[in-house]
Amino acid sequence: MKKYYLASLEEAFRLDESRSLAPVADLVLEQLQACLEAQDSADLMQANVSCLMTALQRHPTAFQPHFKDTVDILVGWHIDPSQPQWVGQLASRSLRQLRQFWTADAAFGVLLTGQFIEDMESYAQELVELDDQPDPDDETQLLCQESASKIVELIKVFTSVMVALGEAAGPAPGTELGWPACGHNLRVIVGCLLAVGRRHHSDQLVVTGCAALGHLVTLLGQRLGADVAHLMTFVDEVLARLAGLADLTLVAVCRLLETVLRHSSTVLPADLMNRLFGRQSPLRDLRLSPSEQVRSAVLATYHAALGLKNVPLLQDVYRHVLSDLHASFLALTGIPTDLVTADDVTAGDVRRPSEGLQLVTFSLQALAELASTRNSIIGLWALNPSIVDLLAVSLRPDDERLARQHPLVRHMVVTLLYSHCSKHRHFLSTSRLMRTERSTPALAPSTGHNLGTLLGLLGRLLRQPESLADTDRLCLLWTAQLVEAAAAGGYTDQLLRSAELASLTSAVAERATSRHRPLSELAARACRRLLDALGWSKVTAPLRRRLCEAVTSDRLE
Predict the structure, then answer these.
(1) Which among 64, 164, 305, 533 could bridge 487 via Cys, Cβ 3.0 to 4.6 Å?
(2) Burial of 138 (0-12, 13-18, 19+ CB in 10 A)
(3) Rounded to a whole number, what is the distance in angstroms from the first to the last CA of the chain?
């Protein structure tokens, strides 16, 4: 009966758009709070909270005097380990719904989170003392488990309140919580996680801890400083138990690492990339996880690392990715690359051929973040080999063995190369083939050969025996787009003087005679686009004749 009464009252407040219930709002909110405090039924608590949240949205001013008491009650439900999991989740959502009140009284939130931290330390110390007893009995073990459970619940409610506080929880000007307090909270939580995890490890502890630490890392940003060492101690100990961890736990750890890489890039230690992506890193094994969720989380970690603006660290992770790519590419295709050196720390880690395709795909997906970033100046000059040289030269996309045996791999390489070059306008303005005042001296030394490399590669690909139609189609479209971009930029005269373009246009014209009707039609349309872009009067007579023959042959058929 109480549940139906609360539902009716909630509906009345929901429909009260004119706020006609304002005269009784104070009394109703007071009674709802008292009812929530005396509640011992989870189902009635749910109905009570739902009604309370609806009423306070209509009458926030009337709720203000009841804010702190309501928070205390919700915190009690949140940290009660005897309640079903959904009760804690409901309490967490309810605390976050009070954001406007948290913002108005940030000092209360700071005081509350500080109390949570003190309680965590107290329970952790209690657990250590109990667990270190010479011969702990069953009762002692039970007390240890209770302390561990209370720490987990305290970390959960700490995160809920921190999220509810929003920007007011961070060390922004005019707020109560400063940089030292954020760092202190992080260190305490890491210490509690280590103390509990070494004695009573649980996946729930790790997932809860990662969520709290990720939030603090986001707040601290580049001021994380030396505390990254504390974080990595926790991560290392968790990953040491890799085989026994649930997928959800692995995802949580990867997300924490991603957060650290994205928000604290300038304060990361020099050896971190080797620890995360080197030959001994447990993360590398997760690339082959049967869980798509885990693989996606690991890939996001690689993306964050390859998005670093810290050049030495970026070069380190790039080197590790290339070493992995070399090993898996060689194992899959039998085609050697020039991606590793004698002193490469991960060289020689060749995977089984059965794993090769999955690992090659993963490495290319990881590089996609770097290759597809338009403003990545770092990617143009700091990486060796450059993205263009890696994809167009080192991975041998024009090797006929690759086309015959692994056409999908070749297509992935060419597609990624196309994406990278499109983002940089096919490197027309910095090419040595374009000897104009438009060239950018700062970039020309590292990118000056790119256009010639691309023209030569496209020509060789189009002259090879037909393989995967999607790859041939991409090469034809790419050629037309490149020439049209050159015309739009005023580079037609310079481009027409290059032997690379003459060879490429000839290859496109040859494709118009393909027995594959859709491909020949596409090649003919590409020839038409080339003629239009280059200009009828500017194209040499032999080249003009070839292109015209390709266009008319398609029409005759």
Answers:
(1) 533
(2) exposed
(3) 82
Q: For the CA atoms of 280, 286, 288, 294, what is the dihedral angle to 10 degrees? A: -170
Q: How far apart are CA 542 and CA 547, in angstroms?
A: 9
Beta carbons within 10 angstroms of residue 442's beta carbon: 12
Query: What is the rounded average pLDDT of the residues 175-185?
Result: 72
Residue with tokens 């143009």: 380
Could you tell me the CA-to-CA distances from 216 to 158, 159, 197, 543 in Å, in that order? 11, 9, 20, 64
pLDDT of residue 524: 84
Q: Which helix (H) or strand (E) holds 471?
A: helix 469-488
Q: What does the DSSP 8-state code read for residue 440?
A: -
pLDDT value at residue 174: 46
Spatial distance between the Cα atoms of 557 and 541, rounded to a whole number of angstroms: 24
Residue type, 33: Q
Q: What pLDDT sits at residue 338?
A: 82
pLDDT of residue 443: 43
pLDDT tens for residues 230-287? 899 999 999 888 888 999 999 999 999 999 999 988 889 889 999 999 988 999 999 9
Name the residue with higher pLDDT: 556 or 383: 383
CA–CA separation, 68 and 34 (whole Å): 13
CB-based burial of residue 8 (10 Å sphere; 0-12 exposed, 13-18 middle, 19+ buried)?
Answer: exposed
Reported as a pLDDT band with limits 50, 70 and 90, residue 14 is: confident
Asked if the peptide bond before residue 385 counts as cis, ω within 30 degrees of 0, the response is: yes
- H helical segments located in 347-467: 353-371, 377-381, 387-389, 400-405, 407-423, 444-447, 450-463
Cα separation values, 378 from 102, 318, 421, 424, 445, Å: 42, 12, 15, 13, 14
Q: What is the DSSP letter of 540?
A: -
8 A C-beta contact, residue 393 and residue 453: yes
Q: How far apart are CA 208 and CA 189, in angstroms?
A: 10
Main-chain dihedrals φ then ψ at residue 59, nearest 5 degrees: -135, 65
How far from 505 is each of 460, 461, 462, 521, 524, CA to CA, in Å? 11, 12, 10, 15, 11
Domain boundaries, the chain: 1-97, 424-556
pLDDT in tens, 125-155: 998 888 777 777 778 888 888 889 999 999 9
Give residues with Cβ within 8 angstroms of 550, minimum separation 6: 508, 509, 512, 513, 523, 524, 527
Q: Provide the sign of the torsion angle of the four alpha carbons 134, 140, 145, 151, taken in this order.
A: negative
Angle at 353 between CA 347 and CA 355, to 5 degrees: 85
The values of phi and psi at residue 166, to 5°, are: 65, -135
Identity of the residue numbered 531: L
Residue 508 and residue 462 in contact, taking contact as beta carbons nearer than 8 Å: yes
Q: Which of 244, 227, 234, 251 is nearest to 299 (CA)?
A: 251
CA angle 485-487-488, nearest 5°? 65
